[in-house]
Amino acid sequence: MDISKKTKLKPTIGLEIHIELRTKSKMFCACSADHFGKKANSLTCPVCLGLPGALPVPNKKAIEWTILFGKALNSRINHYSKFDRKHYFYPDLPKGYQISQYDIPFCEGGYVKVGDKNINITRVHLEEDTGKLQHKKIKDKEVSLVDFNRSGVPLMEIVTEPDIESADQAKQFAKKIRRIARYLDISDCDMEKGSMRLEANVSWGIDLGYKVEVKNLNSFNYLKKAIEYELERQNKLIAKGEMPIQETRGWDENKNITVSQRVKETSADYRYFPEPDIPPIHFTKTYIEELSAKMPNLPDDYENILIEFNVPEQFIDIILEDIHLAEYTIKEIKYSKKQNEKLSPQVIVEEIINKKLQPQKAIVGKVTKDILSKKQSIIKNEGELEDLVEKAIQQNKKAVSDYKSGKIQAISALMGTVMAISKGKADPKKTIQLLKDRLK
Amino acid sequence: MAKTINEEKVRHIANLARLSLSDKEVKLFTKQLGAVLEYFEKLDEVDTEGIEPTYQVIDGLENVFREDKVGKSFSSKKALSQAKKINGDYFVADHVFSKKTSKDRKNIDRKKIDEYNAILTEVYEKGTVGHKDLFMTEDVETTAASHVLDGYIAHYSSTVVELLEKAGHKTRYKLNNDAWGHGASGENSDYGPTLNPWDKKLVAGGSSSGSAAVVSTGQVEVATGTDTGGSIRLPASFCNVTSIKPSYGGLSRYGVIAFGSSLDCPSLMSSSAKTLRKYFNKVFIKDNFDSNTKSKKRDIKAKGVKKIGIIKEFAGKGNDPEIQRTFKEAVKLIINAGYKVEEISLPNAELGVAVYYIIAPVETSSNLARYDGVRFGNGREYFGAEAKRRIMLGTFTSSEGYADKYYDKAARVRTLIINDFKRSFEKVDALISPVSSILPFKIGQMSKNPLQLYLVDLYLSAISLSGLPTIALPGGFSKENLPIGFQIVGPRWSEDSLFDLAEKYQSLTEWHKRLPNNSG
Q: What are the chain A neighbours of B226 within 8 Å (beta carbons)?
């Protein structure tokens, strides 16, 4: 059978993104959720250690943030929701089940705009994170060391439809998700610390009946590379008439390849059932409206404003990376417009980016004032400039003789002196012309 | 008809449940689970069209949350204190990809403390309270009467234990029970059965067997127990003790080793309703650590009992004649005391056992998944036969392809059972029935046939599934001088009314004052 001719092949990619919320306390207990780099097993209690008799009580803030995030993704919020138990055994899962959400997640549907395309969202749900494992050899025996500090930290999972058509689009989508989470200030989304984790489902079409899940992608670049590699690998198989097998693969960042993770999974029967220890959750329309009112401006909102201001695309992307930078930049542009209609937003933006201003400390109006005062005070009067040039020549006899003997670059020393004397106000173009004329 | 279960499926389920079974166990479980599943077939005939499933009985309680505030955590040292293997500040688990090695169990032989094998640990000589060993007691061994928790020193105390301690009622004993609460006779304790103080050849009733034994002999004034499907009422009845199983959510489950989460009711036993009520009022609270205690309906004052319904389905010919006789006498006494009595039918109540033995094992298979021997206690190879059986049963009835037929169906029939009770309480203020159809039986008599033992819960399961408060109290003795109890059941949060009725009954009778060996 020639699979390659059977259907029109098209890269088909879906993402699953896990984001740890930056609540103060954990999802179901009062232990601190600030676990990174802490002494192992120093942030546990009966609940997150899964001790006998312990019971979970959900963190209100984590639920509110998940709904807010869903709103930002244009999702539908389920008015009735609940938690469920997802069963599997792993040493980092203390209870033998994870409290997650099965058939009624907090958020369903929605989309995220990436370029001109809307990537559709399947669902956003809330669950608890697991502990952390380290594999080690102790006395010639392979063991796993377990730290439960991360156990029970609120974890939000975003699942997309298989709408993504390229590795780059996947990367753009993931970056946008991070941007939205950061704008909402609900996670630091630090991939190195694991507070944002990416998984991709990659195939050449749903109707081929397989998908390959790629895990262990802890940067946007690995995500892109892994998808590119997978598409290529699968395409080669298909070209040979072989159907790729459904499997889980991991990204090997040293070899730049994906490798099959032949984890012997007994079965994926998670035996979900409603968590009997937590009463159901019911949001009224008013409650969701009140919550939505807390929504800050999102990347798309700022992007639209910046486009309206004619800010060049390459700058927009940089500015949007940080909500504070976006806010500050827009304020500065608006301020500059009031001061001087002719001042171009591009100049303002260039100045902000070049000076690497810290947006949270920067005072609105300063950049505009600097640019304006520079413009206003530039010495253009030829008589004044000639005086300056004369002074510079007197102070730099050596440079003059060097220049005259053919070392043209010596003129920069003279230029520097003019600038120093004029405190940088001399019009550079005119000065250089006058210098050249004078030294002929 | 093709058998629902075969050895291959049993092995698959064991794998899902992380239990390593011997070939002999596989054979035995195939047969035993087959019989139980066949019994569940009676649910197939029940019409549940348009009936919503019930997963919790909490009066429509919703949205119980915590504010995002940081509290205290354990020190690493404390967190790691009960682990069998640690390395620095880390727990050590077998490598995740390593082949499972079924280790030999090394069971600790426990010295028997008392003649009834009711006491597992003596905590404090001057203490006045006994706790079923499912109650966590900080710094004291807490085992659930299972070898899985041999030597486990609890990291913390349950809410109920803490409340009692704070009120000055110190813990004297930790008490024997069917391991994990799994049983009706007390024989499923990994430390041996509790003997009935009225006749040591007989079972004490379970699962709160040790609690009933020490209260009946007057060794403590009050003992805690738990009732998931009758576990406080049956031993109370078998040992001549008064017990209260509160409305589900009445007493906090926090720190009580979980069996069936939507059914578990921490409960109390004492020698009289009056004493029982005194202690009950000290522990009957809303607890921030157990969301399901927060029903608003519990604050509504009970309206008192005038009319009582006899549960028709539980008061029939299937009962032991001695039970029939004493029950009739109890009813007569109640009528004479001025209460109106009528017969009430609960058509779906008999389905209670089938529904219960689906829901409770599903929940227990989940609740017992945490016992992996990494953070505390021993590994899963230490589970006893009954725990394994129930884990297998619950894993099967919630597994892919079977969850709809069993778990979901049971949750819907549960709604029908609850509705039966609701309707009955439109007519009467309380219901009354015997606790069991049989008298305390010989130790070992039923141990070969789990289903037969499950059916002992016939008069108990439906009430548990409905989350109703129930007082079991002594109602007389058989010709052989064995205690016989009956139960009074009220609508949710009618505890006060039930106590009034129980106290009234006990003001007119002397049964509850009899002590074993001292009754002549």
A: none
Domain encompassing residue B224: 7-59+73-513
Asked about B111 being catalytic, the answer comes back as no
Q: Which of B146, B208, B209, B231 is catalytic?
A: B231
A345 φ, ψ (degrees, to nearest 5): -55, -30
3-state secondary structure of B159: helix
Taking all residues of chain A, what is their mean pLDDT, rounded to a whole number? 91
Listed residue (B496, B501, B355, B504) closest to B416, CA to CA: B355
Residue after which a domain boundary falls, among A333, A357, A377:
A377
Query: Do residue A42 and residue A129 come from a single domain?
Result: yes
Judged by CB atoms closer than 8 Å, whether chains meet at B253 and A55 is answered as yes
> What's the pLDDT tens digit per position in A233-272?
999 999 999 999 989 999 999 999 999 986 545 447 999 9
Q: What is the CATH number of the domain that holds B173?
A: 3.90.1300.10
Assess contact for B248 and B58: CB atoms under 8 A. yes
Name the residue facing B369 among A87, A277, A279 (closest C-beta): A87
Q: Taking the model in full, what pTM does it have?
A: 0.92
Contact A25 B70 (CB under 8 A): yes
- A161 in the same domain as A83: yes
Active site annotation includes B207: yes
Q: Cβ–Cβ contacts within 10 Å for residue B447, how many?
A: 16
| Distance in Å, alpha carbon of B72 to nearest chain A alpha carbon | 6
* Interatomic CA distance for residues B250 and B260, integer angstroms: 16
Q: Are B262 and A49 an interchain contact pair (Cβ–Cβ within 8 Å)?
A: no
Joined together, the tokens standing for residue B465 give 């599934």
> pLDDT digit string (tens) for B204-262?
999 999 999 999 999 999 999 999 999 999 999 999 999 999 999 999 999 999 999 99
- pLDDT of the residue at B455: 86
Cβ contacts of A96 on chain B, cutoff 8 Å: 18, 366, 368-372
* Catalytic residue chosen out of the listed positions B158, B207, B271, B433: B207
**Rounded Cα–Cα distance for residues A130 and A97 (Å):** 10
Q: Is residue B93 part of a domain?
A: yes
CB contact under 8 A, A279 and B291: yes
Instruction: Give the pLDDT of residue A384.
Output: 84
Comparing CA positions, the residue from A121, A120, A128, A95 lying closest to residue A107 is: A121
Do the chains contact at A269 and B375, CB–CB below 8 Å? no
Range of the domain at A270: 3-290
For chain B, which ranges sit under pLDDT 70? 1-2, 97-104, 518-520
ipTM of this complex prediction, to 2 decimal places: 0.96
When divided into structural domains, chain A yields a total of: 3
CB pair distance less than 8 Å for A266 and B400: no
Q: Give me the residue from B73, B253, B375 closest to A42, CB to CB.
A: B73
**Three-class SS of residue B207?**
coil
Among B8, B57, B95, which would you mutate to test the A interface (most chain A Cβ atoms within 10 Å of its Cβ)? B95
* B347 within a domain of the structure (yes/no): yes
Of A268, A290, A312, the position where a domain reaches its end is A290
Q: Is B75 a catalytic residue?
A: no
Residue A265 corresponds to which amino acid? E
B71 contacts in chain A (CB < 8 Å): 25, 29-31, 45
Cβ-based contacts of B72 with chain A (< 8 Å) = 30, 45
Residue B104, pLDDT score: 64
Query: What are the chain A neighbours of B405 within 8 Å (beta carbons)?
Result: none
Element (H, E) at B90: strand B90-94
**pLDDT for position B454:** 86
Q: What is the residue type of B325? A: R
Residue A4, pLDDT score: 53
Are A133 and B96 in contact (CB < 8 Å)?
yes
Q: Strand, helix or coil at A146?
A: strand
**B520 in a domain, yes or no?**
no
Q: How many domains, chain B?
A: 1
CA distances from B286 to A70, B64, B249, B292 (A): 33, 12, 8, 9
| Nearby residues of B22 by Cβ (< 8 Å), 6 or more positions away | none
